[in-house]
Amino acid sequence: MDPSFFTMGMWSIGAGAIGAAAVALLLANTDVFLSKPQEAALEYLEDIDLKTLEKEPRTFKAKELWEKNGAVIMAVRRPGCFLCREEAADLSSLKPRLDELGVPLYAVVKEQVRTEVRDFQPYFKGEIFLDKQKKFYGPQRRKMMFMGFVRLGVWYNFFRAWSGGFSGNLEGEGFILGGVFVVGPGKQGILLEHREKEFGDKVNPDSVLEAARRIKPQTSASEKK
Description:
GO molecular function: antioxidant activity
Organism: Camelus ferus
Protein name: Peroxiredoxin-like 2A
Oligomer: single chain
Transmembrane segments: 6-28
Number of strands: 7
Shape: globular
Distance between the termini: 99 Å
Strand content: 5-15%
Helix content: 25-40%
Structural class: alpha/beta
Largest sheet: 5 strands, mixed
Family: Belongs to the peroxiredoxin-like PRXL2 family. PRXL2A subfamily.
Mean pLDDT: 87
């Protein structure tokens, strides 16, 4: 066999492999393979069972969170994740203005692993509840697996949070993507629904505040008189 023919064949295989890897990397950085979020209906959110994290936990329907004054709710992907802690801190920076509007700030987690929720609380200035059935992460749960680690946007988010001084750990489930909701009282509905499309895709705090300003608190019959 001609050695030059063999060498040319090896070069062709190598070039093909590099080309295939480049195409795969390019596609991984588009939204082509990302699962599209399904918008949640108000009725779906209202019927979610949540549990308090007290020593004697109480189970209640999620609609209690926003029934009178509306609410801002963060569905935390993983409390130990430094990207989630960054977003929690951003939302907590809005707390003084949300308090002025009379709009409470809450978070839900999908599991309670060791001290993860307690360690998350310094970053989040609202009450935290357990969504054991992971309903706030639906109606169609979306996952980002190892493809997330080849996305340039994710690496940018890593660098942004790390530069901001945030750190974390690898405890708990972190592939089911989270989000942020702003829900009006009564039947006013969902005023903002942000679904995380990749690790660290945090909500714009200005959008949260804008949606919160549109909340119209419920007035009781006695107050109307």
